[in-house]
Design brief:
The chain is mostly helical and about 55 residues long. Helices cover about 55% and strands about 0% of the residues. It has two helices and no strands.
């Protein structure tokens, strides 16, 4: 497998977030997202457990 070197500029203005949306987020929005993330994680672990053979 080939090795690829990447230089990351920590001071770059190109972020992966939308600062306006982050600033507009309320505590209620963040709490809702946390619940959605936890629910998704539980569903993923359930699907994984169902695929595993009985041990």
């Amino acid at each position: 497998m080939k090795t690829v070197r990447v230089t990351i500029d920590a001071h770059s203005k190109d972020g992966r977030i939308d600062p306006a949306r982050v600033d507009a987020s309320t505590a209620h929005d963040i709490a809702r997202h946390m619940v959605e993330d936890e629910t998704g994680a539980m569903l993923d672990s359930t699907k994984f457990a169902q695929r595993m053979p009985d041990q």
